Amino acid sequence: MAAITDEQVETVRALVAAVPSGKVVTYGDIAIAAGLSSPRIVGWIMRTDSADLPWHRVVPASGKPAPHLHSRQLELLRAEGVLTRHGRIPLSECRHRF
């Protein structure tokens, strides 16, 4: 993976912070909005620097949270009115557009 700049980290952080309650975005949505080459870069940034952000509003393109985040992420989203269908978040209904 190419070196990630402080500017890229701050851009990703700002985009995540801008996702409103009751909405979700994918790692790919953020990568596109930030001008990054891969959603994996967003994942890396989120894994290392997102404790103070609404991280639960960022989901994989499948709409299915990662197993290690599943319960907590769905609990937080449910509190914001985001419900799942068959274990997936219905992106067509609750996806935020930048």
TrEMBL record:
Keywords: DNA damage, Methyltransferase, Transferase
Matches recorded under InterPro entries: ATL_DNA_repair, MethylDNA_cys_MeTrfase_DNA-bd, MethylDNA_cys_MeTrfase_DNAb, WH-like_DNA-bd_sf
GO biological process: DNA repair; methylation
A Pfam family annotated for this UniProt entry: DNA_binding_1
Span of domain Methylated-DNA-[protein]-cysteine S-methyltransferase DNA binding: 10-82
Taxonomic superkingdom: Bacteria
Coiled coil start-end: none
Protein name, UniProt field: DNA methyltransferase
Organism: Mycolicibacterium poriferae
